[in-house]
Amino acid sequence: MSSQPVTFLGRARELIGTPEAAAVDRGVRRFNEMRLAGSAEYAVMEAMRDRVRAIRLHSLRNLDKLLDRFADQVIEAGGRVHFARDADEANQIVAQILRDTGSRRVVKSKSMVSEEIELNPYLISRGFSVTETDLGEFIVQLADDVPSHIIAPVLHKTAAQIGKLFARKLGVEETADPTKLNQIARDHLREIFLAADAGISGVNLGVAETGSIVTVTNEGNARLCTTAPRVHIALMGMERIVARWEDAAATLEVLARSATGQHLSVYTNVVTGPRRSDDPDGPEQVHVVIIDNGRSDILGSDIAEILACIRCGACLNICPVFREVGGHGYGTVYSGPVGSVVTPGLHGMNPWWELPYASTLCGACEEVCPVRIQIPSMLLKLRERAASEGRLPGWLEKGMSRYRTTATDPVKWASAKKWLYRLSGLVSMGGYIRRVPGPGRGWTRFRDLRRPAKQSFSDWMRDRDGA
Amino acid sequence: MATQKVQLMATCLVDAVAPEVGKATVRVLELARCEVGYPEGQTCCGQPAFNVGFVDEAREMARYTLDLFDETEGTIVIPSGSCAAMVIEHYPEILEGTDYEDKAKRVAGRTRELSQFLVHDRGATGFDAVCDGCTITVHRSCHGLRNLGVRGEVDELVRSIAGAEVVPLEGAEECCGFGGLFSVEMPDVSAAIMRQKLDNVEDSGANILVGGDISCLLHLEGGLRRRNSKVAVRHFVEMIGGDDGA
């Protein structure tokens, strides 16, 4: 991952109040309403959440066995399997497959793991042509941008902005009509699909019992990517596995309901090996690249359960911080509450330790997570890790140590209250403080601070009970 | 209803910054036929330390608070959803496997958030409070809501106030942006979230914003004052306990 020079707060400051942030807020609220409507009409939603949670946890507990079985079945179906320890290895494997098969022109359907390993720049710098075919990802690529939401990469853009971009980059007439924009992208991509040598896709689920790869889209582009070109390369995070088809079915249903409120995504694309002799079409080769890239570290840690995530985006859509800042504030492909756990888990605490602090701990993420992942308690665990590694500012560390000493000694506590009252008198007017110096100044930049009371409640109680 | 013995855990903010909330809590508990004990020497539950990751510090404060309250009798009542969640949920968590595990579970089992205690344990919702011309809207603070399931209790309590109208708040269950030290560490983000909440509060038509957590309320009060709003901020217990001039 490329780390950016600014912190979360630095990026957030640049984003808050911008048209981009406003577009994110509108977008996630719409998603959230769709999720609520979709869940409300689905009487068994709560039971299905429990079921999918059990499915995902079962997969994580049996991951080694299931991956073996999955790999065997992929090979059985005529596909090839590659294991990549990290991003570098994954990128090298993909480039090698492309070279071996004489592929130069690559089409891609949406794959977050390809963003995670930064596959596009790797391939492009080595002379391959890579075209994103998911509408959102296509726009991101044209704009030389990065996705801002795991299921809606251009949530931060308005239709008008996209119209301008298309006019500039594709030489078409400017429009802000989404249907027309869609048609422009479709026309542009059609030729590219037909000329492509290889298609790269992500994997929503790998089904171990048959070695099948499932991808869901609402645009059908994954189907074209995985069938039209001669070679199909599927990139799969190693936790995306389920044992059986019935597990996949339940998971896909809950995924669609939680992401957009749909019954199912419009296209559910299943690939089990390359084309058979009697198939009218399909790729000659299917390669599955199973990527670790830090997942084993997470699996062996106290945040293992985050790997149960099915990437629906519901926690992003409900998160008050995400709503104000948008995905770009997080500086990494996995944003929002889940990203703030996954990112330090995958890529280490440095520099990502601050992401777990980009949360009010309101708990809304856990409430909506279809797999009931306890995201807030994982954020707390990562905060504990950050604090114990000495990553927090000195004032906070010293302050906490002093606070503990004071709060475990009634005499010190009583005297601290008196001192606070006296000191606050120097800066307050009419019982409120408009500006405090020091680390607390952030508070009074946006709010008045009520002055501590002259007579504390404890003193009042003592007088009362004594009287 | 028979008199019940309770122990009040006031919380550090009520003790030092908002004593009127503590006074009103005592009045309301007595109206609900409770005999109110107040263990001397109480300080802070340790939540600020816990939430930023200083768990050792939080554990020490937890042990201090547990020693103080484990010696007392009766239900421990806390006028704050987040401090109550700290004692009920997180004390047993952070002390699991230590020699304080049993004590933490014992105290957690005796602890109740104030609105839930009043409505469910005491069945007391009417306190003969009067507030003419008051239009009240209720913010549902996150930890009370999501950790303890405080949903309609505060609404129910303030609805009993004579002369007052309770109006709905758009996004009442959305976070206000406070988040403890988050409000100081990431003030811009905190304030951006607060802005939406305050817009909703002002759009509700209420002249009093009510909640069950003084921490969130001080943040919202500070924000409302900064925008010269006419909306006042009160803990629900101040509304039902009134100010009898004590």
Quick description:
Chain A is α/β, with parallel strands linked by helices. Helices cover 52% and strands 11% of the residues of chain A.
Helix/strand/pairing class of chain A, anyone?
Answer: alpha/beta
Largest interface: A-B, 67 and 64 residues
Q: Multimeric state of these chains?
A: heterodimer
The count of strands of chain A amounts to 13
- CATH domain fold name of the domain at 42-293 in chain A: Rossmann fold
| Share of helical residues of chain B | 40-55%
Shape estimate of chain A = elongated
> Within the largest sheet of chain A, what's the order of strands?
1-10-7-4-2-3
- The CATH superfamily of the domain at 42-293 in chain A is identified as NagB/RpiA/CoA transferase-like
The span between the termini of chain A is: 66 Å
State the share of residues found in helices of chain A, binned by percent. 40-55%
Compute the number of helices of chain A.
Answer: 23
Distance between the termini of chain B: 25 Å
Percent of residues of chain B in beta strands?
Answer: 15-25%
Question: Runs of chain B with pLDDT <50, length 5+?
Answer: none
Report the radius of gyration of chain B as a whole number of Å.
Answer: 18 Å
| Mean pLDDT score of chain A | 96
The shape of chain B is: globular
Listing every helix as H and every strand as E from the N terminus to the C terminus, the arrangement of chain B reads: EHHEHHEHHEHEHHEHHEHEH
Major sheet characteristics of chain A: 6 strands, parallel
